[in-house]
Amino acid sequence: MERAKRPLILLTAIVATSGVFSAFLVNDAICLVLAPLVLELALALGRRPAPYLLAVAMASMSGQPRRSLATRRTS
Prior knowledge:
Elements: H1 7-22, H2 27-44, H3 50-59, H4 64-70
């Protein structure tokens, strides 16, 4: 929390964390795990949680194409 004094730094950290997890986990799991953490963090810092929760949802979808390409079977 000490490093996230500026909103853009927190937003970048959330997007990066969610994006990295999306390469290995399903989108639903990422949202279910990160949403309460992000909500609590945003409220503790006195910020509106909506932009940060949307960042979790959008960034969690970023790893799906990579995961589907990595697991595609070739004939």
